[in-house]
Design a protein that fits this description.
Trna Endonuclease, Chain: A, domain 1; disordered N terminus; about 375 residues; 11 helices; alpha/beta; 5-stranded mixed beta sheet
Length: about 375
C-alpha cells in the first residue's frame, strides 16, 4: 500500500513539475519573443540566443533550489536517526501546536479571558519559534559538519581500499610529499613500502590496505621493527586504512629504546589529506550526497515500476480472485479475503498507473515544441 501511495504521489509530482515547466516556458516565450517583422536573420538569431540563455538560467536556478531541498532533507533525516523528513516536520508542527494549547489553557485558567489568552499565547509561540530556530540552526550546522565528515571518510575509505596495492602506496606517497616528507622512494622490500626523510630524519613506512574488520596486530609491528633494524632506520611509520589491535600499543613501549614507530589509522590518513589539501571540499561532499540520493530514488522508482508494471496487473487480479474463492473454504477466510483485496487494489492501481503514465507522456510530447 505504501508503494502504491508513493507511486501515485510521484506521478502527480512529475505531472505538476511538467505543468510548472510548461507555464514557465510559455511565460518566458511570451515575455521575450520578438516581433520578427522587419528583422533580418542575424537579429532573429540574436533574439533566440537571448531566450535560450534566459531558459538556461531559469533551469539552473530551479536545479540549485531542488538540490538544496534534497540536501536539507538528507541532513534532517540523518539527524532524526531514521525518521523521515515528513515525520520530522509533523513532529515539529505537533510540538508547536501542543505548546500553543498549553499556553492558551494556562492563561485562560489565570485570566478567564479566551481572547487575551489566545493573543498572549501566540506571542509566546512566536518567541518560542525564534529561540528554537536559533538553537536548531547552531545544532544543524554542527550536525551537517559531522555528517559531511562521515560521508567523506566513507568515500575516501572506499576509494583507497578499491585501489590496486601499488596505486594505494602511490596515493599515500603523494599525500606525504605534500606534508614536508622529502625524497620518498618506493621500496622493493616485502615489509617496507616507502623510505624518505622527515625533519632531517630517515624514516621507513609500511602501508596496510586493510578493510575495517581486519586490524593490524603486534606481529606485523614486530616484522616491521626487524626490517627497520635491518636497514638501520631509527624511525618508522605504519599506515593503515583500518585500525590497530590493543596488543600493538602494548608492544610499542618495549621498542622505543631501539626504534620509534608511529601508528596511523584511517582518521590519521584523513588528517594527512587535510594538511595536504587533498581532502574533499564541501561542494564535492554535497555532490557525492546528491549522487547517493538520486541513485536511491532511481532504485526505488525501478522497484515501484516493477511492482506496478502493466504486465502484472492482470496477474494481481486473477491471483486475488483465486485466493478469495478458495479462501472461503478454509478457517482463515478473513485473512485470505484481506490478501485478495490487497491484490485487487494492486491490480487496479497498476492499470491506473499505466494510464496516467500514458497520458503524461502524450502531454509531454505535445509540449516539446513550445519554444
Amino acid at each position: 500500500m505504501v508503494i502504491v501511495i508513493c507511486n501515485i504521489k510521484d506521478n502527480l509530482s512529475y505531472y505538476i513539475k511538467d505543468k510548472m515547466k510548461e507555464v514557465v516556458l510559455r511565460s518566458v516565450y511570451q515575455e521575450y519573443k520578438r516581433p520578427f517583422n522587419g528583422y533580418n536573420q542575424n537579429e532573429r538569431d540574436d533574439c533566440m540566443d537571448i531566450d535560450k540563455t534566459i531558459l538556461f538560467d531559469i533551469q539552473k536556478a530551479l536545479k540549485e533550489k531542488s538540490n538544496k531541498r534534497k540536501l536539507k532533507k538528507y541532513y534532517l533525516e540523518k539527524i532524526g536517526k531514521g525518521k523521515t523528513y515528513t515525520a520530522i516536520l509533523f513532529d515539529d508542527i505537533l510540538l508547536k501546536a501542543l505548546f500553543l494549547i498549553i499556553c492558551t489553557v494556562f492563561f485562560y485558567i489565570k485570566t478567564s479571558d479566551i481572547w487575551f489568552s489566545g493573543i498572549i499565547s501566540l506571542q509566546f509561540l512566536l518567541l518560542y519559534i525564534i529561540i528554537s530556530y536559533k538553537i536548531k540552526k547552531v545544532k544543524y550546522k554542527k550536525a551537517v559538519e559531522k555528517i559531511n565528515s562521515q560521508v567523506a571518510k566513507k568515500k575516501i575509505y572506499k576509494d583507497l581500499t578499491n585501489e590496486t596495492p601499488y596505486d594505494f602506496i602511490e596515493e599515500i606517497k603523494s599525500n606525504l610529499e605534500k606534508c614536508n616528507f622529502q625524497d620518498l622512494k618506493i621500496s622493493s622490500e616485502k615489509d617496507l613500502d616507502l623510505v624518505g626523510d622527515f625533519k632531517e630524519n630517515k624514516i621507513g613506512i609500511k602501508c596496510f590496505q586493510y578493510t575495517s574488520d581486519y586490524k593490524v596486530n603486534a606481529n606485523a609491528v614486530r616484522e616491521f621493527f626487524l626490517v627497520l633494524r635491518k636497514h638501520e632506520l631509527n624511525e618508522g611509520m605504519i599506515i593503515t586504512t583500518s585500525s590497530f589491535l590493543d596488543d600493538t600499543n602494548e608492544l610499542l613501549p618495549k621498542l622505543e629504546n631501539y626504534v620509534k614507530i608511529h601508528l596511523l589509522d584511517m582518521d590519521d590518513i584523513l588528517n594527512i589529506m587535510k594538511k595536504a589539501e587533498t581532502y574533499p571540499s564541501n561542494s564535492e561532499i554535497e555532490k557525492n550526497i546528491l549522487n547517493k540520493v538520486n541513485h536511491k530514488k532511481r532504485k526505488l522508482k525501478e522497484y515501484r515500476d516493477t511492482v506496478l508494471s502493466k504486465g502484472k496487473s492482470s496477474r494481481y487480479i486473477i491471483i486475488g480472485f483465486i485466493i478469495y474463492f478458495f479462501g472461503r473454504f478454509t478457517p482463515y477466510d478473513g485473512y485470505y479475503t484481506a490478501i485478495s483485496v490487497l491484490l485487487f487494489i494492486l491490480g487496479i492501481v497498476s492499470i491506473a498507473n499505466y494510464l496516467i503514465k500514458l497520458f503524461f507522456s502524450e502531454n509531454s510530447e505535445d509540449n516539446k515544441g513550445i519554444v
